[in-house]
Amino acid sequence: MNKKITTRAARAALASDDNERKQAVINELEAIASGEVTDVLSWDEMGRVQVRPSDQLSPRARRSIKKVKITPHEHGNSIEVEMHDKLSALRLLAKHRGLLEPNSDESRPSMIGINVTGPKTTTYAVKEDDDDEVAEEK
Prior knowledge:
Layout: H1 7-15, H2 19-34, E1 41-43, E2 49-51, H3 59-64, E3 65-73, E4 76-83, H4 86-96
Antiparallel strand pairs: 1-2, 3-4
């Protein structure tokens, strides 16, 4: 696949009936899952790091790269290589091949109801006395 694929699109493709699309996604995920930084970088005994020329990178290595950034400095180049998320790719592959539990989100409620109950109230009735008349002292 030439176009980068999102996790959501990969899940949809793996769930589809299109076998060609499924296989393309599986190939992409396998490349990401098996990619290693040593496919892209090399270093010598002195710790000098070099990026391999792009024409020498394997298709697997090219698929596993997310970003390469080279910033020149007065003492050499600063090299940053970011690879795609290997664990996400492995998780999707394992789930597709039945090595993980199926998605249990389907059995979870989509909305949770909350019942709020206030404090119990007590009503008191005021009873009037019949002996309200006060005897006058004479």
